[in-house]
Amino acid sequence: MLRTEAAPVAPRTGDAPARQPTADATERRRGRRPAGLGRTPAPRDPFLDNAKYLGILLVAAGHAWEPLREGSRAVTALYTLVYAFHMPVFAIISGRLSRHFEATPGQLARLLTGVVVPYVVFETAYSLFTRWSSEDPDRPITLLDPLYLTWYLAALFIWRLTSPAWRLVRHPLPCALTIAALATLTPSLGDDLDLQRVLQFLPYFVLGLTLDDNPRPPRTLAAPLLIAALALSYWAVPHLDYAWFFHNTAATDLGAPAWTGPLMTLATFACSATLAACFLSCVPRGRTWCTPLGTGTLYAYLLHGFLAQTAEHEGWYESPWLHSPTGVAILTLLTTAITTTLCTPPVRHLCQALLETPLRRALTGGESSGSPRWTATDATNSDPR
Fold it and tell me: In this model, does residue 81 exceed pLDDT 80?
């Protein structure tokens, strides 16, 4: 799943009489952003781009390790640790970058082209692909039941639309935790838009939304806490169902009493938020070689799933050497290389040209100069100011 944008466009020479304030300038003096669609990108925060790149590597690694869990306590411990915080990290960053969302026409357009369009395209693509990979030719195609990775786009769409309302709530985080806890008591929510995940991951989005600054806890505590968490995860393998960190079902669906749902909501939130803070504290603050790759995490997230499903369908995991420590290490390095390639600008530009450019041109009436750059990078990776 892990964004700066939209400084107002400065008036061009000749757009207004000399010494006459433009409407945009008037709006800025009043402390408001201009409501027009035309915006130019502001400098991106390299810290957030670095965090998104490193986060997407963990997402891909988790999917690569998934078929190797059976019979390996060490792999299961790594898998549990990663799943405890990698999607919370993306939800926190998404909340952080939704602080200025006010549902203006330009922001809604970016949300449409950058989230809704990729959701429709990849939900359909994954449904067709799953007919082959799961050997279920009758699997229906529906946009109401997010498949595999696409749930995060549905969640992001809902979260971002609600972000103005959260700024009006006096105690937003306790309120979001209450909603998440109630969701664990409601197995009847069903699969529509994967509302269980939308609601149970909501506190992390709200946490990011309410942060005053980028989360940067002391680095001195990060490494010891992560090592301790890995040791605890190894111990917990036979004692704890890691599915609690998926946040996609009610408590009773996991075979637990209903009353444990709210308790596990608080426990997993405390655990995941702490681990997310440790991870973010290790992320480089300034621009590095991986910073540009952070702008391409959306399509890396959506595309790597096809490779993961193909590997399982083709039986690549049946090779005994993959189930050795050396095999796990080689697979992790290979996954890192492939995911990094999917984050590169050529892949991102190709996907944007195929998916977003046609709709963007339709929304702008075919104009090219002065029209807003509505991209998936804007909608999911940048601050919609």
Answer: yes
